[in-house]
Amino acid sequence: MAGVAKSTVSRYLNGGSVSQKTKDTLDRIIAETDYVPNSFAQSLKIKKSNLIGTIIPRLNSYATNEILGGIDKALKEKNYQLLITNTDQDAAREVENLYALSRQKVAGIILLATVLTKAHKEAIEKIGIPVLLLGQKSEETYSMVHDELEAGGFIGRHVVALGHEKVLYLGVTKTDEAVGILRKKGVLDVLKEEGVQVKEVEVDFNYDKTLQFLKEYLKTDDSTYIVCATDNIA
Questions:
Q1: Among residues 187, 190, 98, which one has the least CA distance to residue 141?
Q2: How far is the C-alpha of 189 from the C-alpha of 34, rounded, in Å?
Q3: pTM for the predicted model, two decimal places
Q4: Rounded to an integer, what distance in angstroms lies between the CA atom of residue 106 and that of residue 198?
Q5: pLDDT digit string, tens, across residues 132-182
Q6: Domain ranges within the chain, ordered by starting residue
Q7: Distance between CA atoms of 14 and 194, rounded to whole angstroms?
Q8: What's the rounded Cα separation, in Å, for the pair 54 and 118?
Q9: Rounded Cα gap, residues 207 and 231, in angstroms
């Protein structure tokens, strides 16, 4: 139809160099036939794709959904597609998904990590794909973190402004440095400085488990306000 070799067509579709005359001919034929290149097949041939793998800790989170919306919008502007994998707060699955996404030839990975372990670091180094960490700090790869100390301080000041003197703080494991250590410190530093009595309890990220725990705990507790480390706990 185009009067050119298959290798020329392949080179054109994969962004290679062809003459202007050939390019014009192929552009016309593609428009007339509504041809859509198979992006997955292209990725296998040129060993890259326009897919960005995004590993999230859970699906039922307002904060995660807001982040995904922002990522998707930014990727569309650059003609990239979002590929989402969920781990259900399982750190081992985060590592597994790093390897799995690399086998799918994604161009890069965005990891909303719950923790950053030695296994995470080894996987990031081995797969040889750009990885951006969100929410956990790392010196070995790209990372973006919130100012968790300030965020925690904001929460603490809000509680003080409400006038509460006895507070129950529902935190998470210290293996989550951002939330389990820094955010917690921001909250507690403000509350203790203001003389607020604080009881600390480590709970699961799971809403149902936390609810069941509180039903029993609050039967004998006299706290007047509950501070939750994350929206999912709340």
A1: 98
A2: 62
A3: 0.66
A4: 46
A5: 999 888 887 888 888 899 999 999 999 999 999 999 999 888 888 888 899
A6: 6-37, 46-144, 148-228
A7: 63
A8: 20
A9: 10
Distance CA 12, CA 60 (A): 43
209: closest CA among 170, 180, 181, 182? 170
Write phi, then psi, for 93 (nearest 5 degrees).
Answer: -70, -30
114: its two tokens: 């719950």
In contact, 234 and 228? CB cutoff 8 Å: yes
Tokens of 59: 């699906």
* Residue with token string 């969920």: 86
Helices 91-103 and 118-127, axial angle in degrees (round to 10): 0
- Listed in sequence order, the DSSP H helices in the chain are 6-13, 20-33, 39-46, 62-77, 91-103, 118-127, 148-162, 184-193, 207-217
SS3 197: strand
Q: Domain 148-228: which topology? A: Rossmann fold (3.40.50)
Is residue 178 within 8 A of residue 116, CB to CB? The reply is no
Confidence of residue 9 (pLDDT cuts 50, 70, 90): low
Determine contact, residues 71/82, Cβ cutoff 8 Å.
Answer: yes
Tell me yes or no: is domain 46-144 CATH 3.40.50.2300. yes
Tokens of 12: 């054109």
**Domains 46-144 and 148-228 fall in the same CATH topology:** yes
